């Protein structure tokens, strides 16, 4: 989706006031009745209706009259609210080019007042490729009834909280700068997603480092759950950075082992295919340092000493609660 931030400049205080009123109304209405928007916005002389027409023209709200006359925010409207809040807070001052399109996100460069470039990730749950969801029917069934804006906000909050906590434990992740609504601001990673890297100086070393990260995450009680060549960035020094955290789960999750093995498998398959690494397990050479490897040379989930709940405190400190985790898991599982 194109993000035409130019329109941001043309929006008046009243426009934002009404846009915010629609957002507030959406806390308990899927479609917010126009009278409710008017009541919350509190503009004089029916001014709300004129403003709503303007917001509609800029596609910041969607008009729905199927059941009653009402409005809901579009993703663009939600983007504008988040961007404005972050600009007001001084987190950045302008939005630049788009640098990534994920399955369920758009990533842009943003610039701070002093010219530092950061990355801004806008979560877009509900914009899923059919391949990525359990079943098309299931998806279509829920497409309308889910509150995607709410879930996107939860995903952003989770991503921000995990990125911050992981950074504090010295995992190689982008620096978590700030978060508002469905938007996460983080440092810009230099380098490329591993999927684009055709050659490495030291594929063995990079491989070991990546597998080491999966193991260390598990030791901290966590599984990434989408650990693959799209979510690992490599720079010119072959330094690794992990990104994309909304789907992480605890090692105490009932499917933890399956997720752990799937993450590990992805990396083994990718390195074997792209860099022709072969993985032979040498039984004779087995010493203590190899003791958490299985016969196929994969790290074994059960022999890792895990401290579940280790990051809970840090996560809660960012405002992401266990209840949020349960809710997001239930909806996205
Ligand atoms: P999704 O959850 O939609 O997969 P990601 O977080 O994986 O989103 O981001 C999608 C793409 O955007 C990545 O593959 C990467 O190319 C780019 N990207 C994401 N975060 C950053 C960042 N902090 N710095 C540079 N590029 C990034
Ligand atoms: Mg990704």
UniProtKB/TrEMBL annotation:
One GO BP annotation of this record: maturation of SSU-rRNA
GO molecular function term, any single one: ATP binding
Top-level taxon of the source organism: Eukaryota
Entry EC no(s): 2.7.11.1
SMART domains xrefs: RIO (SM00090)
Domain RIO kinase: 64-284
Record key words, sorted: ATP-binding, Kinase, Magnesium, Metal-binding, Nucleotide-binding, Serine/threonine-protein kinase, Transferase
Membrane recorded as keyword: no
Cofactor: Mg(2+)
Any single Pfam family the record assigns to this protein: RIO1
Catalytic activity: L-seryl-[protein] + ATP = O-phospho-L-seryl-[protein] + ADP + H(+); L-threonyl-[protein] + ATP = O-phospho-L-threonyl-[protein] + ADP + H(+)
GO cellular component, one term: cytosol
Keyword flag rRNA processing: no
Family membership noted in the UniProt record: Belongs to the protein kinase superfamily. RIO-type Ser/Thr kinase family.
Protein name as catalogued: Serine/threonine-protein kinase RIO2
UniProt organism field: Dendrobium catenatum
